[in-house]
Design goal:
This protein has helices at residues 26-34, 47-51, 60-63, 83-89, 101-113, 132-135, 147-163, 183-192, 216-224, 238-248, 265-272, 278-285, 296-314, 316-330, 337-343, 350-367, and strands at 14-17, 40-46, 92-97, 122-127, 167-172, 197-201, 229-232, 252-255. It is an alpha/beta fold. The chain has an eight-stranded parallel beta sheet. Helix 1 crosses helix 4 and helix 5 runs parallel beside helix 7. Bound molecules: flavin mononucleotide (FMN).
Length: 368
């Protein structure tokens, strides 16, 4: 069995959390893992930046493992199988970007010399980020234009990762633009160089996030390689997952935007796929976590768990600001939500944020 497949229970769909800069923080990854994400991945971190960051002082906050929430009673039921043990069982990876093979090798050595990061199961290489800051260095999605370099990067990264008993996965797009779609070729190249799984976001780099993900192209990647292919792009419902699997034969799914403000999505998808594990069924019975009946109090507790874990890591002032964009996604989908989204942008303290969230929970309770 392939090293990536070995991370997951057999006969369970692989539904991972896609990396998202600014959102897939340790706190959010911990919540996603708790609520059933098969795996989680950090946001993209510069391989070269790590090599200049002795002691990983600046990078550690991004590279850190998913938070475990062992001290949050709400997230610790059933008592015998608490959040910390669930989260610790979920594999997680670190995503690196760069354009120089030696940077990846050096960064991987530094990462796995750091005690806190030794629970990471794999290193994911970003070949899909289209933002100019990354692409202008020839990194991220720009690599799709240079398959040979993609291969050299994976070779160097794989050699380093295997010294530490870890493996490499790669995340690609379809190509630079419609005229140069080459995802099957890039996938073949990185697998020959040692990648053990490939995630394909079915858009070209120049599309950024516009238009629709072109799922049939994922089938072409699947046909080209013999390691797991994780399909990505526009997945929201269990019906989407089923449709993507039927159209592409993909081996798993990565969910990005739809999970923002809703880490429980992974549990909802599993339930809707009728593939809940016993443990998740038990959680469902508690009613607290049932997707349609989530109490306002439980919803509040999830937001506060993320807020408090972020404060613990970054301190109150920084955490309160950085949580704003995430909280804006929680504060959606009920009458008057826009008012709370604008209110939550203002407080500079935990108490101030919690007051807004409590009002939002009260208002949501009246309408649900
Ligand atoms: C705000 C934001 C940040 C992202 N950051 C990353 C990143 O750090 N690394 C990466 O590989 N992809 C990143 N992505 C892309 C997502 O992982 C994913 O490929 C894309 O959003 C399509 O999946 P979705 O339709 O499920 O969101 C980001 C996407 C968004 C919206």
């Amino acid at each position: 069995m392939n090293a990536f497949n070995r991370l997951f229970p057999e006969n369970e769909p692989v539904i991972g959390l896609a990396p998202m800069a600014g959102f897939t923080t340790p706190a959010f990854r911990g919540l996603a893992a708790h609520f059933g994400a098969s795996y989680t991945v950090t946001e993209l971190v510069s391989a070269r930046g790590i090599t200049y960051d002795r002691g990983l002082c600046r990078s550690l906050r991004y590279l850190a493992p998913p938070d475990t929430f062992s001290h949050v009673p709400f997230l610790n039921f059933p008592a015998s199988d608490n959040a910390a043990s669930i989260i610790n069982k979920r594999p997680w990876g670190i995503q690196l970007f760069g354009s120089v093979p030696a940077d990846f090798a050096a960064a991987i050595d530094l990462i796995f010399e750091e005690t806190q990061l030794q629970t990471a199961a794999f290193v994911d290489i970003n070949m899909g980020c289209p933002v100019p800051k990354v692409a202008k260095e020839g990194a991220g999605a720009a690599l799709m234009g240079n398959p040979l370099l993609c291969g050299r990067i994976v070779e160097a990264a794989e050699r380093a990762a295997s010294r530490h008993g870890r493996f490499i996965t790669v995340k690609i797009r379809l190509g630079l633009d419609q005229a140069s779609i080459n995802a099957p070729l890039v996938a073949k190249t990185v697998v020959s160089a040692g990648a053990t799984a490939v995630t394909c976001h079915a858009r070209t780099a120049d599309q950024f996030y516009s238009g629709y993900a072109d799922w049939p192209r994922i089938a072409q990647v699947k046909d080209a390689i013999d390691v797991p292919v994780i399909g990505n792009g526009d997945l929201v419902t269990a019906g989407d997952l089923i449709k993507m699997r039927n159209e592409t034969g993909c081996d798993g799914f990565a969910i990005g935007r739809a999970s923002r403000g809703n880490p429980r999505l992974f549990m909802t998808l599993r339930r809707d796929l009728n593939l809940c594990s016993d443990q998740e069924s038990r959680q469902d019975e508690s009613t607290v976590l049932d997707s349609n009946r989530l109490s306002a109090e439980a919803w509040l507790q999830i937001m506060m768990a993320q807020l408090d874990a972020t404060i613990e890591r970054l301190g109150e002032a920084v955490a309160v600001r950085e949580m704003r964009s995430s909280l804006a996604f929680y504060l959606k989908g009920f009458p008057g939500a826009a008012t709370f989204r604008s209110r939550v942008m203002k407080p500079e303290t935990r108490d101030g944020v919690v007051a807004v969230l409590r009002d939002a929970a009260d208002s949501r309770a009246k309408h649900m």
